[in-house]
Amino acid sequence: MTLETLLVFTHKECPHSQALLEDFRRRGVVFIQIDVAEPGALERLRTLCWEHRLPVVADHERITIGFRGQASTFEALRLED
After folding, report:
1. Reported pTM
2. Which of 11, 19, 41, 57 is the most core-located residue (most Cβ within 10 A)?
3. What pLDDT does 61 receive?
4. Is residue 16 part of a domain?
5. Domain that residue 20 falls in
6. Mind listing the pLDDT tens digit for each residue in 37-81?
């Protein structure tokens, strides 16, 4: 991973995550997708931000939550304990 690489935290059931991925792919944005359902991914996301919404884009030291003003909560995606 280089410093220019975006980390995109998503979940397969999050429509806003899917819309963001589609937009990035259409525009040729280089990114690494991390599905928070994968082992250790949610913990990795929590080291970057306290938000409980998706999608999350980590760009160096900047964190962006949601896509086009919309986001899915962890509770709605059944990610909360």
Report:
1. 0.88
2. 11
3. 78
4. yes
5. 6-73
6. 999 999 999 999 888 999 999 988 799 999 999 999 999 999 875
Evaluate whether 11 touches 35 at the Cβ level (below 8 Å): yes
Indicate whether 79 belongs to any domain: no
Instruction: Flag whether 1 is in a domain.
Output: no
Specify which residues 67 forms β-bridges with.
Answer: 70
Length of the chain: 81
Supply the CATH number for residue 66's domain.
3.40.30.10
What's the N-to-C CA distance of the chain in angstroms? 31
Number of domains the chain contains: 1
Q: Strand, helix or coil at 4?
A: coil
The pLDDT of residue 51 is 84
Q: Between the CA of residue 63 and those of 31, 70, 81, what are the distances in Å?
A: 14, 15, 23
